[in-house]
Amino acid sequence: MTADESAPIRVLIVDDDALVRAGLTLMLKGAAGLRIVGAVADGADVESAVAEHRPDVVLMDIRMNGVDGIEATRRLRARSGAPEVVVLTTFDADELVFGALRSGASGFLLKDTPPEDIVDAVRKVVAGEPILSPSVTRKLIAHLVPQEESRRRAEARQVLERLSEREREVALAVGQGKPNAVIAGELHMSVGTVKGYISRILTKAGLDNRVQLALVVHDTRPD
């Protein structure tokens, strides 16, 4: 789902803590270009809330007593025209964040992130830029069991082997967290061409978004 550039970005808040929902709503409702369209307390209610409010971005709590953020994200991102999802967590090394990113989330934020940074993150994911740093990715990968890591690395290598040399260059740049404009400058191509390459790479690799592509690239790197 893509927001009209002339319209405010519509945000849905999902958190089972009433104080967190109220706090996020209070912090964000006055931000220019953003509109809080709803808030729900259970991942089970996300799909119906999205259908009702049509948000561009969902701020998704990862730990909830009902349907958690991972399952809610998976269900939501499997739908056509799904909004972007940014998961919320208390700890930057929460192993569950990795599962949410694998399920199609565009990144994550700590719950104590300053309001202006949350606003900036929402705008970035709508523009197609992930909210995920390589250092954070490494922390999350470190929490996976060795057997799972070995299997994932083998699958990631197979994905990159299916790409052309130019596609791999673009994929590696995405894995380094570089925005489209920087990739375009370094590889001597237009931003539109970079977007086209990323779209083809995602289709060829069977991935949902560039965050998942960045994770695949990290999976192929030696320790």
UniProtKB/TrEMBL annotation:
The chain positions of domain HTH luxR-type read: 156-221
Q: Which GO terms describe its molecular function?
A: DNA binding
Record's keyword terms, sorted: DNA-binding, Phosphoprotein, Transcription, Transcription regulation
Q: Which CDD domains match?
A: LuxR_C_like, REC_NarL-like
Entry coiled-coil feature ranges: none
Q: Which residues carry this modification: 4-aspartylphosphate?
A: D61
Give a GO biological-process term.
regulation of DNA-templated transcription
Q: Which domain of life is it from?
A: Bacteria
In terms of PANTHER family, this protein maps to: TRANSCRIPTIONAL REGULATORY PROTEIN NARL-RELATED, TWO-COMPONENT RESPONSE REGULATOR
What is this protein's name?
DNA-binding NarL/FixJ family response regulator
Name the source organism: Sphaerisporangium rubeum
